[in-house]
Protein 1
Amino acid sequence: MKYEEMTPAEFLQAIALMPVFFVPTGLLEWHGDHLPLGLDALKAHSLCLQTADKLGGGIVLPPNYYGRPGFSRATGTLTFSEACMDLLFSELFEQLTKVGAKVIVLLTGHYGPLQVNFVKRVAEYFMAEHPATTIIAQPEYEGVTIDGETPADHAGKWETSLFWHFYPDLTHMERFESHTPRISYPDPPNDYYKESEEWEWQDLPRVASQKLGQRAAEIITDHLAERIRTALAAV
Ligand SMILES: [Zn+2]
């Protein structure tokens, strides 16, 4: 199931069974005092593995940590230009098509308009030139509602719960402090958004839980698996 762990024979067998490739993507980005910098890609990776498990097939790439701006000025965040990311993903899609992908799932665990619009655009451009490849490019919360809410935030109730469920050893609720992002770096020279002005932290220790994360993961991966089945049926 994990690309990097497969032998060539296993790889060919997996593609013959189901020509689906998962690209879990995120960013190295500040996620409060209680969560690690690589949360977005790690979360996306676990959701891809769980979805592949439900499908009974598919090959999951290692997490990709490079993406478009998010909390660019906060501690530890690394961001990349659209030109750089465009090349990376266009060539990756090209390479995955070469090895046999019919459906590519680009699941972004990092959100914000710059990232989400980017993944959709790069997928659309590729599909226009390569009609035999279907790319499902989306943040994990897309199309999902849980208890009347979209399960999406930044290190808030949903993201903390999801991550806590998948990575309890990397989640440090005792270090949680409610504050706006601590600005560590000057404004970047080009595109980013002013993250702190929109910041609103929830009452996290009261609302986040591993149990909620488990439930959200089930609903998200059920929904994603269904999208992939529909795409596969049209291949
Ligand atoms: Zn995040």
Protein 2
Amino acid sequence: MNMSVARAVNVDEVRELARRRLPRPVFDLVEGGAEDEITMRGNLDAFRRHRLLPRAFADVASRDSGTTVLGTKLRAPILLAPTGAARVLHRDAELAVARAARASGLGYVHGTVSGHTPEQVAAVDPFWFQLYASGDRPRLLETLKRIADVGFRALVVTVDVPVFGNRERDRRNRLTIPLSFSPVAILRCATRPRWTAEFIRGNLPQRAQPDGRVSPFGTQRQILSSLYPVTADDLAFIRDHWQGPLLVKGILHPADCETAIERGANGIIVSNHGGRQLDRAPAALDALPVIVSAAAGRAEVLLDGGVRRGTDILTALALGARAVLVGRPYLYGLAAGGQEGVERVLEILVTEFDRAMALTGFASTEQIDGTCLMPVQ
Ligand SMILES: Cc1cc2nc3c(=O)[nH]c(=O)nc-3n(C[C@H](O)[C@H](O)[C@H](O)COP(=O)(O)O)c2cc1C
């Protein structure tokens, strides 16, 4: 075990380890949000505005922090969000993430944008798959069939990227979208020789692009360049051709929640894409109660964005979320220590959540409700 990661006592410390290990452009790629990063910071601040009431006299000697999300059992109400950057953080990329999630009894939502194929990740754990849908119906059908054939249990359709958010850190660092490293960006990465050597070993030979840039994503460039706005009809089409549970990721407006449920979504992920799309969008946590009431029990509602503490998870559940997704926290772990780093982050979150449950008087996840929240003036 990488000793520094093993000693990290919270997610913030793992973040600091990642920051020290990564070249600035790569850390910025993970850390950054859109424009003034108001939404990105807002996701974190929204949790800090809440206060939790400790309870005495509760029988919490033995606790069950497990749950079930759309039929899948988890050790705690935590999922790993799809993130397209693992390849630039560690050689084992999504495989390390999937292995860590599995070892931790949690679920990894493997993304369309990835350094590994769906088949490779499904061989570790065919949990859920996140789709950037294409307008090209035959291609979409082919993808849905492939994902079903390899055994992914649920499909998550991301609907908040009709165009890319304006991520100014990446522009300043000369990282272009679809993600590729210009010669200038590569030079800037040379400040971290260990990272650079590993990155080149892991990516360069098979991945040099015809235009001379180095892309860690190879053919994913094609997928990214064909991003387009998902319509309600597209969602209905996907529903017709996907048998398993269907979730929609990137909902903040109650009318969109209604549309998604009408078109057959079983799960709604309240998310602003970690503040990477529309800056000044509301914090995910602030949007959560409205979406929970719009869903009205017809779909499970998950919260995504800004979760860094077990108390954050408890707060989200108290406001009606079935579970939360984390993105950057496990990417920090991956950068700091590969699979073990991801496992350390997940262990921290699970342990903190369990402790928060005990201190607020809940013996099981099912008991968590709004009674533990105290309004703050
Ligand atoms: C580096 C990075 C890449 C991401 N790539 C994707 C992606 O390919 N598909 C997607 O639906 N969301 C993507 N996201 C958003 C995450 O799934 C998630 O919504 C976000 O990270 C949650 O916020 P948090 O980082 O504060 O936990 C990405 C986020 C980051 C940080």
